[in-house]
Amino acid sequence: MICSRGVWDDSVPGISFDENGASNYSKLFDALVKAYPRGESGKTEWDHIIKKVKREGENKNYDCIIGVSGGTDSSYLLYLLKEKYGLRPLAVNLDNGWSSDISVKNIKRVTSKLSIDLETYVIDYEEIKDLLRSYMYACLPWIDIPTDIAIKAILYKIASREKIRYIFRGNDFRSEGTQPESWTSGDGRQLKYIHRKFGKVPLKTYPNQTLTDLFYFGFVKKIKSIYPFYFLDYQKRSAQEFLKKEFDWEYYGGHHHENIFTRFAITYWLPQKFNIDKRKITLSAQVLSGEISRDHALEELKKPLFNAEQIEFEKIYLLKKLDLSVKQFETIWNSPNRSFKDYPSYFTIMKKFTKISGFFLSKLLAYKPMSLFQMEHIKD
User: Fold this and answer.
1) C-alpha dist (Å) from residue 58 to 51, 54, 315
2) CB 240 within 8 A of CB 177
3) What is the per-residue pLDDT across 164-186, written as a single tens digit (0 to 9) for each?
4) What is the pLDDT of residue 256?
């Protein structure tokens, strides 16, 4: 069954449908839109945020931090923060050894033209290689968790070092949707366990993020994550055209495809091993936000996720870069799929103490966290 409003279907964990065929994911989207309205209400909230950031950033080198990947959202957000709203951001990039040439060029072009300082944190490649291999051996759906955790960790650490209280993130639920927990969940506790079980290389430069870290940065340092596109009118396709014109920015082919390993995880690992097509989430959100029609979304889903010849070439490259033999990869591929719930994590603690964890997360995010919305609408 397919949602009558979007293109979520019964392959999506925790999905349910009402008598009209509308899914609980569509109602989650409605709840988020109501909680974070755009238009005048959004502008009022955003103006309040800007004034606060500028006031607290006086006499500092920077008043905010933004993580950059060379993708659409973070590149356009850099432009908005600096040119339209007069902020003084420090751009922070994580180098995990898998960035595409296009993404690296995009970051340099945008930060250079805007005269924005860029700090790149480089993880020792032997460490990140060991972690990514470990997640593959663990047979989890989202094998790029180490990158996600590292990005969050360095943003908080650099913000703390620079005495900056605000981290701006380019996430946008209206164009990206909300992923099911079982598809993408992971945390610092689980990473430690998986690395001990499957890894071999000591982690010296890898910036993990534990609950203690989150408590310290959120409550002691009072650092908060802000999502501007929750409040501002934003169309990804229009932003891409603007970036191409103003910065000679290049498109990289798909959501999160600016990173080679991430692209492999989305276009091959998830759909082929786990029958997970994340486009159903992204396209549904774009339908409900009015960016595309439902018919267009359904047609997009008929298209293959990857070019067979290209993905085989990328797989050979990936295995070589990870020091995995074809036989080792086949062993991994044929091993039983696992869930993030199969390994120790903070998840059970957060679930058990929902109200406390919600309060805790709200101190980090400055407003109601996405996870609480999910708990209210999705029984995953």
Assistant:
1) 11, 6, 49
2) no
3) 999 999 999 999 999 998 899 99
4) 56
